């Protein structure tokens, strides 16, 4: 960890978006000068995440359900179910491309159209609806963190996008959105499998998947990637 003193603020309590019966609070890093990706590389190993240019981690007084989950790339072996997802995608001519997050105006319009359809499909009853360009901009741009886009295509048509933080020795999946018509291909899981393949080819140590919350159904897919590690009680625990 950096020797520079870091200051954190605590947000006011609010209803938890993962466990509605719980109250949520966050510890938020107050912008040091300069904020950079080396500092984030250190903090992500201590249960922190990035949202836009903000670094945070849960700081809930009565709950510790949010546990960062990361996959040791060299040890990962796809399960039978995950191999079926890859096989189904291959038969339907899916492929992927990992690119820089800088996009042309035409590419941005394509990304936003896909993002807009996804939010209406999955989150019409949530705070992200309706989708805005400001939301997408906060995901794909950062003043200090290199970002890549994992683009998933079916027969040359863009079907899903996963936003990836490019760390020194790891990848961190930030957010994934996809076309409603692609739902039967499990595009969220498929994106992780493709990212793991890319990480292995480039000798990356970990793929971070964000917070695992055992009581939240929409987070359950993360724990299916084995073996993995989760951060709680101050250090990483292995699950095989």
Structural key phrases:
240 residues, alpha+beta, Aminopeptidase, 2 domains, 8-stranded mixed beta sheet, 4-stranded antiparallel beta sheet, 32% strand, globular
Describe this entry's structure for a reader.
The chain has 240 residues and is of the alpha+beta class. The chain folds into 2 domains: 8-68, no CATH class; 73-239, Gcn5-related N-acetyltransferase (GNAT) (Aminopeptidase). Helices cover 25% and strands 32% of the residues. The chain contains 5 helices and 14 strands. β2 and β3 form a beta hairpin. The longest helix is centred in the middle third of the chain and has 18 residues, at 105-122. The chain is globular, with a radius of gyration of 18 Å. The two termini are 28 Å apart. The model has no long low-confidence stretch (mean pLDDT 93).
Tell how many strands the DSSP assignment holds. Answer: 14
Write the element-wise H/E pattern from the N-terminal end onward: EEEEHEEEHEHHEEEHEEE
Which band does the percent of strand residues land in? Answer: 25-35%
If you average the pLDDT, what whole number results? 93
Biggest sheet statistics: 8 strands, mixed
Summarize this entry quickly.
The chain is of the alpha+beta class and 240 residues long.
Mind sketching the topology for me?
Blueprint: E1 8-10, E2 14-15, E3 23-24, E4 26-29, H1 37-44, E5 49-51, E6 54-58, E7 67-72, H2 80-91, E8 94-100, H3 105-122, H4 133-140, E9 147-154, E10 157-166, E11 170-178, H5 187-201, E12 206-212, E13 228-232, E14 235-239
Parallel strand pairs: 11-12
Antiparallel strand pairs: 1-4, 2-3, 4-6, 5-6, 7-12, 7-13, 8-9, 9-10, 10-11, 13-14
